[in-house]
């Protein structure tokens, strides 16, 4: 008997790696977020098996026509003392969350069968990154919902592809990807988000501030997943996690890390200062 319910249209779509690639191949922002959540539900319902083989995803996921992608220096500066500035800030966050959906599903599609994972760990690895991808889709919807309340939408401002490009520098290395995507880029989010929340509260926009609070709390879990899997891969390779992390970041993220660090949130994600404090 055919199953019904919200996931019925994907019920025969195939294995989890094919489904993860289908998220990457979806260009429309809302459709990508919806598909991410549907694929997560299928996995959790046991309806998306892990295959023996997978196809490496394309280096560039499908993208909508808007936002227009420009050089980082050409993204307009945000001044939070005006409503337009707050909308621009929320748009930048929406763009990060949009990229984060693809980053989570690329992590899964590219690396779930990687030799760097122990065979018995693959299901737990998918559990974690499906959870991250589902969160990112929800974050994207949360912020675009807030943008809509403010009369704006995702695509209204130019954006840049720095996040995706930085992650793709590690396309051939699970350890490198874990070091750069969750443990450098997402950890950076933990450093800067409390300041954004404070500035939004000061500007009187407590609704937007609450959206960012939700995201901030959940992003600690994403960095924690990165730290957990980085240690797993380091142990399998017989590498010291701290020294290896530093070597990988120097190799794949040569611009260095930007202080000040949110040491408390990083520690809650099991990322102590010895990992990152010398990488400035
Ligand atoms: Fe997020
Ligand atoms: Fe995240």
TrEMBL record:
Query: What protein name applies here?
Result: Uncharacterized ferritin-like protein (DUF455 family)
* UniProt-listed CDD domains: Ferritin_like
List the Pfam families.
DUF455 (PF04305)
The coiled-coil regions, if any, are none
InterPro entries referenced in this protein's UniProt entry, alphabetically: DUF455, Ferritin-like_SF, UCP012318
Superkingdom of the source species: Bacteria
* UniProt signal peptide: none
């Amino acid at each position: 008997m055919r199953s019904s319910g919200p996931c019925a249209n994907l019920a025969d779509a195939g294995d989890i790696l094919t489904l993860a690639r289908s998220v990457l191949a979806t260009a429309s922002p809302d459709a990508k977020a919806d598909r991410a959540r549907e694929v997560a539900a299928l996995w959790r319902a046991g309806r998306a098996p892990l295959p023996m083989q997978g196809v490496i995803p394309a280096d560039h996921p499908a993208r909508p026509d808007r936002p227009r992608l420009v050089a980082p220096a050409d993204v307009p500066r945000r001044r939070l003392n005006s409503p337009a500035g707050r909308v621009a800030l929320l748009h930048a966050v929406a763009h990060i969350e949009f990229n984060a959906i693809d980053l989570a599903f690329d992590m899964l599609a590219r690396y779930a069968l990687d030799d760097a994972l122990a065979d018995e760990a693959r299901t737990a690895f998918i559990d974690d990154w499906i959870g991250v991808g589902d969160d990112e889709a929800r974050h994207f919807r949360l912020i675009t919902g807030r943008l809509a309340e403010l009369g704006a939408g995702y695509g209204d401002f130019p954006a840049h592809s720095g996040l995706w490009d930085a992650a793709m520098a590690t396309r051939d290395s699970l350890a490198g990807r874990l070091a750069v995507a969750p443990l450098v880029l997402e950890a950076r989010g933990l450093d800067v988000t409390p300041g954004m929340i404070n500035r939004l509260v000061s500007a009187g926009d407590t609704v937007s501030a609450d959206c960012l609070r939700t995201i901030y709390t959940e992003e600690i879990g994403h960095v924690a997943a990165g730290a957990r899997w980085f240690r797993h891969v380091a142990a399998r390779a017989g590498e010291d996690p701290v020294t290896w992390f530093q070597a990988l970041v120097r190799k794949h993220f040569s611009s260095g890390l930007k202080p000040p660090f949110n040491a408390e949130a990083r520690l809650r994600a099991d990322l102590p200062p010895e990992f990152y404090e010398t990488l400035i």
